[in-house]
# Entry
Amino acid sequence: MSKRGITLYLHVHQPHRVRDYTVFDTAANHNYFTEPDPLSGRNNERIFRKVADKSYRPMNALLQKMLDTHPDFKISLSITGTLIEQAEQWAPDVIESFQNLVKTGRVEIVAETYYHSLAFFYSRDEFVAQVEAHKQKIRELFGVETSVFRNTELAYNDELAQWADGYGFKGILAEGWDPILDWRSPNFVYRPEGTEKIGLLLKNYRLSDDLAFRFSNRAWKEWPLTADTYTEWAHAAVADNQPLINLFMDYETFGEHQWADTGIFEFFEEFVGRWLSNEDNTFYTVSEAVEKHEPAGTISMPATVTWADAERDLTAWLGNSMQQEALHHLYALEKDVMRTQDLELIADWRRLQTSDHAYYMCTKWFTDGDVHAYFSPYESPYDAFLAFMNAVRDMRWRLHAHHKTGGL
Amino acid sequence: MLGWELPPHNSGGLGVACYHLAKALALQGTTIDFVVPYSATHENIDFMTVHNATKLSPLERYGLGAYDSQFLLDRKDGADVAGLKDIRDVQRQYTRFIERHIEKEQPTYDAIHAHDWLTMEAGIRAKQLTDAPLIVHVHSTEFDRSGGGSGNPIAREIEYQGLIVADRIIAVSEVTKQIIISQYGIPADKIEVMHNAIDVTSFDDGYEYDRRTYRYLESLKSEGYTIVSAVTRLTIQKGLTNLIRAMAMATQKYDRIALLLAGDGEQRNELIQLASDLGISDKVFFTGFVRGKQWRDAYSVSDIFVLSSVSEPFGLTALEAAHHDTALILTRQSGVAEVLNNVYKYDFWDVTRLADQLVGIATSYALRDTLKENVRREYAKISWDDVATKLRTLYVAVRERERVLV
# Structure
């Protein structure tokens, strides 16, 4: 019998935030993403450099150390194309440190859409093109093939699983959400409804969110969380011979969402050592997890489930009319964009598809006044919407100029 | 003359009206002491004496917009500005300045002319100290500013006192006169209507329309779109939700219409949301606060200008729009609708009517051009010189009556 293992999967991402792009910029200049104000929260370079210092550099150093120290330590990473582009521009050493991790052979790269988009829900052609673009970028940079898929925001349904199965992925990731699982545990591999071969890995959201969201919360009754306590919880979670603990979270949990002074790095190092000190325990990459375990049953999610909010749905991205309008108008440009074959224009259009833009327009927290739960570089969802719509209109203007046709 | 602002230190139409009114009076031989509640040099003014009532800079006073009855002077360092905490403090200091000025200079005035509630207390005090008749000039009431509600009770009380004590009241429109009668219980024969005008020479500063400012809108126009605009503060008084609803209705009939909303205000987010809810956000453009070229180009890029106010004492923007060659649609609840005939008019709540008018103009070049051309002839005839003539007659009449009464 195989060992019980932790499947640690970290998502690494930064969007190209849209600058304060006004009606006066529309059709006049096509720079959507480069904010001249060096202090602005929409200045992508400034934010990238900050997060690189706080998270990417120290965490990659720590991961390297753990890999060097513990032969059984393994992780999986999904790194978006938009992050890679920014790292190449402003922090090439960060790319190098990721490459070194992958060279150990114990770090797997997970497939996803290059632009961290919700294209699956709007255009299958575009979605596939972005999955391919990401595969290609990973191949170039790391010399590896991806074989397990995660969709943006872990947005998952049966149709997506069936697509991934047909496309040849051997595994896919989703949220382990109670109303779906009912009496079942997230700590097994499952077979998605209507698929032949693919294995489904479900996030153990309790243990994941203890780190991602609660770790530094002083109001939490478990604060401060120690590696001992967390190891106990992990062992308790896989009692009765359950094989897996899928810990899925944002990479930026380490150093950015939870700052270094919360002790997150020390905690992590200690926990990995503690977990592996029991010889029945190990770590799995996502492909190993699906290869080494037979599905315990079939799971169906006809409606889309994400890893966000109490609702675990897409309302943070598509819940209000501004978000729906914005994405509708953006995706309506697809055919005209693609037939330009203008790489710069296509890249701009795709950068606007990054789900973060729609997220910044979310009003469900804003109206509650709970703006602290809401992370946005804009003053309000309305400001985010105006800047985005002006950029979409400008895209349309460029297409008009390119094709010399009407249709603004 | 007691005012709250003069260009270029104005936040709205009040300063513009006061400036042109005073200038036209001066050209006819009236000598004017004009008091403002801040300290600034007015290099463009040599036709009257401008007095600064406080040490506030005009910028600090911007917070105290001529239309805001509630406002706290807010400084990042938490300190009060020159010891003045809110608009009431500024008004008190303004009144003290008038008292000291009269005591020191012992001037003899033929009339005290006070503009709006902001200066009415000072006007009453000046009347007591000099025995000169008080003329209260109403550009807007608290009733208008609150979108037809009761508004700030303090402002309303001051307005009431001023209207009672005044020897004569000037209303900028029949609409305003009716509000003064119905909302404040003032007898009709005490109120005279003098509509505002427009000084077209003030626009002769070498301005030329720059098609690049709203380049996307120009592209829409070249595809046959009609650009509808409102240049306005985005507040409830302006009836803009009805305008957006009418746009949505109009685009059902004819989809080549876009709306430019130039200005800012507390209703902005609500309007953005509404446009999205109605599915027309792609064709509604928000500029934020505009000045100078962007402001004038907003008029110039437009084919149709809509004044959608729920209650608008006058509505100078409509005349400005006409000057920049647009067809006009005005609510019957606006003063400016009383002086223009070659325009469409509707009741502010009548969304269907407005939608119909928008489609009508958008689908007929002949109609659009006729409206533009004819309103151009019409608005140019409305002059400040005529207003000044009427005012000078009023000044004399009020003084005569005072003598008879005494």
Remarks:
- Chain B has 15 helices and twelve strands.
- The domain at 13-197+383-405 of chain B is CATH 3.40.50.2000 (Rossmann fold).
